[in-house]
Amino acid sequence: MTVARNRALDRIRAERRSASRAEEAARLEALLRDGEDGEDGENGVSPIPDERLRLMFTCCHPALAPEARVALTLRTLGGLTTAEVARAFLVSEPAMAQRVVRAKAKIRAAGIAFELPRDSDLPARLGSVLATLYLVFNEGYAATSGDELIRRELCGEAIRLGRVLCTLMPDEGEALALLALMRLHDSRRATRIDAEGRLVLLADQDRTRWDRQAIADGLALTERALVLGSRGRYALQAVIAAEHARAARAEDTDWERIAGAYDRLYAIDPSPVIALNRAVAVAEWRGPAAGLALADELAEALDAYHLFHAARAELLRRLGRDPEARAAYERALELAAVPAERRFLRERLAEL
Predict the structure, then answer these.
(1) Containing H/E element for 329?
(2) More exposed terminus of the chain, fewer Cβ within 10 Å: N or C?
(3) DSSP 161
(4) CA dist 199 to 240, 257, 273, Å?
(5) DSSP-based three-state secondary structure for 314
(6) Close Cβ partners of 296 (under 8 Å, ≥ 6 residues apart)
(7) How far is it, in rounded angstroms, from Cα 41 to Cα 310?
């Protein structure tokens, strides 16, 4: 932005012969001075030190519907394509494109100014900014397109911005919980793909290779968020991730406690993906039949979600219902886009 502004100034200064050009130059010079001085906040200092985070708060205008804010910010600033944003919201790409177009049209029609938020504006926009960072991290941690399952640059940027946000708002429990959640998940990054590029499930990962510093940071942040009274969606997910991080072996995992956390999470955010995760936890706690019964209730809502069919196939396989498991794996394979996931599903099919 600074480079573009300077180039515009150079060109306009060279054409200052007309009065209109002189006016444009004056406006751009004022903008340049504001950018250099940081005079964006109420007291002459920008409340948000990081430029990208500042722009995210700017895009998350409360006049827009929450989902429209997040979708527009992901598309504009999050580095995600329309198709990737659509998959994050479990809607079709045309539907997401229309959502973004409508958000832009509302900005134009309502005359919403693209201006940097003041200190007093931040709390109303925080939830949308957290949702944006969460979805950027998710796309990095388990990519829905491209050749790589893990997009490290997205994970790293989401964590970096999460740290900046927690420095800015050190007593916001959900911001701390989101950073904890990202750190705990990211601690397992090196073990999710083997040397040959194969996907490694959580139960099969070498836990001695998990990043102990990231786990320590995540556990401390989770504890701090809970002490502050946070019991929102990110705090509960951090509690679940912490249970996995504490288990030295897969069989040591406290699945009953994880299922209970998913119950509380579903009570405040009754999404079908959370219900699916809860079904998987119940399957580990009470057996595959109990988990499958819960998963089957989600068939209509998650028919286009490859992980639903993959999870269901795994439960059917454990129950010895191989023909049904094969059909579910084949449906998951139809929907999966990332090579590592497709390879994993093909190998599972070959084992039946």
Answers:
(1) helix 322-335
(2) N
(3) H
(4) 22, 26, 21
(5) helix
(6) 312
(7) 49
Strands (DSSP E) along the chain, which ranges?
Answer: none
Contacts of 307 (CB under 8 A, 6+ apart): 276, 332
Residue 104 tokens read as: 């832009």
- Is 125 in contact with 62 (CB distance < 8 Å)? yes
Q: What is the pLDDT along the chain (352 residues), one digit of tens a residue?
A: 777 777 777 777 776 655 555 666 666 566 555 544 444 444 445 567 788 888 888 888 888 888 888 888 888 888 788 888 888 888 888 989 988 888 888 888 878 777 777 888 888 899 999 999 999 999 898 887 777 888 889 999 999 999 999 998 999 999 999 999 999 999 999 999 999 989 999 999 999 999 999 999 999 999 999 999 999 999 999 999 999 999 999 999 999 999 999 999 999 999 999 999 999 999 999 999 999 999 999 999 999 999 999 999 999 999 999 999 999 999 999 999 899 999 999 999 999 9
The residue type of 293 is A
C-alpha to C-alpha distance for 116 and 34, rounded to whole angstroms: 12
Residue linked to tokens 């990208």: 52
pTM: 0.81
Give the contacts of 226 (CB within 8 A, at least 6 positions apart): 173, 235, 239
Residue where the block lists tokens 């090196």: 190
Q: Which residues pair with 193 in a beta bridge?
A: 199
End-to-end CA distance of the chain: 55
Buried b (16+ CB within 10 A) or exposed e, 239-254: bbbbbbbeeeeeeebe
Residue 323: both structure tokens together: 């023909």
Counting DSSP H helices and E strands in the chain, the numbers are 17, 0
Of 128, 8, 15, whose CA–CA distance to 78 is shortest?
Answer: 128
For 98-148, the DSSP string reads HHHHHHHHHHHHHT----PPPGGGHHHHHHHHHHHHHHHHHHHHS-SSSS-
